[in-house]
Amino acid sequence: MPSSLSLYIYGNKHSDSGFAPILVIGTPLALADSFYPGFESCPEFYVLHTTETQTLYTVVRNGVSSIGAARTGSFKMALGVPRGMKLAGGVSPYDVLTEAYRYYVAHYLSIGIAGAQFLDRDEQADEFRAILSRHSLEPAHRPHRLTAGTGFAVVTADEATTRAIFADPAYREFQAYGEVVFASSHASVAPRLNVVTPRPKIYDIFLGNQRVGEINPAVKSSFTITVPATRSYEENTAQTIQIAKALQGAEPGVTVDEAEERIVCRLSPRLKTIRLRIEAVLESGEAVSPSRLVLRSQNGRSYAIPERGEMQLEGADTELKWSIAPSDHSCKVTSHTATQLPDGSRLLRVTLRPTIQPKKSVGGYGPSTSSSGASRRRSLTLPLFAGVGLAVGLLLGLAIGYFIWGRSAAPSSAPQQEQVSEDRSAANSDLRDIEQQYQDYQYRLGKINEPVDSLLSEVYEWLQTEPASEFDLAHKEADRLSAQYNELLIAWQALKQGQVENLNKILQDKDCHLSDSQKTILNEFVRVNGKKPKDFLKKAKQASSFDGLLPQRSRDNHNGAGAH
């Protein structure tokens, strides 16, 4: 970008050359031989035009004839001031342009009664450079507003007004036109602009990168800006900005660019929030912990619900559709209601139905159920095993691994455990072996109902001695066994209720977690009892215990083993 003044002199100096450059100092620029209707009677007038790179201040003289010719032409002299600069010392471009123009008139034009005529004399560039060199430039610290429109407008102005406007030409009114013409009198019908001097500062207001308005601090001392609603922020968040404070840098999020006369607001509106209170009850009316539930939004994100049931959603998640569901398969939601509370929060009341009922010990192998305390401990144990989480999963893995699917020997108090051959393939066993395995399976299911206090202490002791890598492996295994355990309970229920079709679905599920030996046991029961489903269902309803579903030979063996 040039940092010095430019001077352009154009006209019809030679009759055979037309309107052409006579002298150019600085950046080359082609001046157009424009026609300005209504100014023919003016001996001279001024024109303002602002481009991307500079502002041109032009004086136009009418009635200048070519050398030795009677035909009149035109004459233009323009002073170019680079973008972002101004003349130092308060000098107006009008003064420098007028000085150079008067010098040209005095030395290169012949003034007569009929008008002016170019002299046959070569212009000396050094003479005009000397005029320009007497003036220096400095930063303007004002907007550079282009006259980028079409046509021209007129400002009727005397010499003093023209001088003042040329000193600060960044009027918003000029932007709609290609040029602005200044004359004390004229007959032009072009649009007329009424502007005042000095130029008032009118600030553009931006919200982020978007212009949203303008303000004249001399007229208004403040403005209110509204942040539009988004997915994350409150709707119609309005904030009033005091311009005096903004100029001092005392308005948070607001900066003022004095040079560009721009106020930029980068506000931080309030996040949208929704406060929730969740209550959970069983169909019986008994209250349960809301932490057994999870809130899921449509974007796939899940929110754990704290024990107290109070939580808050923020930002974009407040506009997402959400659903509430149990955190595991131990219960299901039968109904829920949402109520708007006076404090603006929402109450969600969820009703649950247990899907896994606690089981008593089967076939006399488990602990006695005569004690109400023992029964209560058993009723609390199954939901614990069905829970999700690291601690519950680890406990489940250890309990089931130790008492059901672990490789350690069964307790000595269970003589039928000694009859099971773990090395034999269940798939190749005869029916007698399958029945024996099934009895053992019943026994181990009963052992799950034992109180968990002792198991907890074993888990704690194990965590103190095993390395972290072993803990991670146990956690993964516990997750697998947890899924397997839930499927076994469902299968058990299906067997007891004679739901042969449901059993078949479980066994045919490609994602089934049951082991091969467990599938073999269940397949055999389907084969033996599924031939006459109606009879089997009747038999299941009459059975006082799960043992009643076993074939007769299995019951005899079972009773014999229990008499040891």
- How far is the first residue's CA from the last residue's CA? 108 Å
**What is the multimeric organization of the chains shown?**
single chain
Described by strand count, sense and barrel closure, the largest sheet is: 9 strands, mixed
Share of helix, binned: 25-40%
Question: Which word captures the global form?
Answer: elongated
Structure annotation, total helices: 13
Pick out the low-confidence regions: 359-432, 444-453, 544-550, 557-564
Rg on CA atoms, Å? 48 Å
Mean of residue pLDDT?
A: 75
Which structural category fits the helices and strands?
alpha+beta
What does this structure look like?
- By secondary structure, the chain is an alpha+beta fold.
- It is built from 13 helices and 25 strands.
- It has helices spanning 93-108, 125-133, 159-167, 243-247, 372-386, 390-405, 431-447, 453-465, 468-496, 500-508, 516-529, 533-542, 552-562, and strands spanning 6-11, 20-25, 44-50, 54-65, 72-82, 85-87, 109-112, 115-118, 137-139, 152-156, 179-183, 203-207, 210-215, 222-227, 237-242, 254-257, 262-265, 273-282, 287-288, 293-297, 302-304, 310-314, 322-326, 331-340, 346-354.
- Mean pLDDT is 75; it is low at 359-432, 444-453, 544-550 and 557-564.
- Helix content is 31%, strand content 26%.
- Helix 9 packs antiparallel against helix 10 and helix 10 packs antiparallel against helix 11.
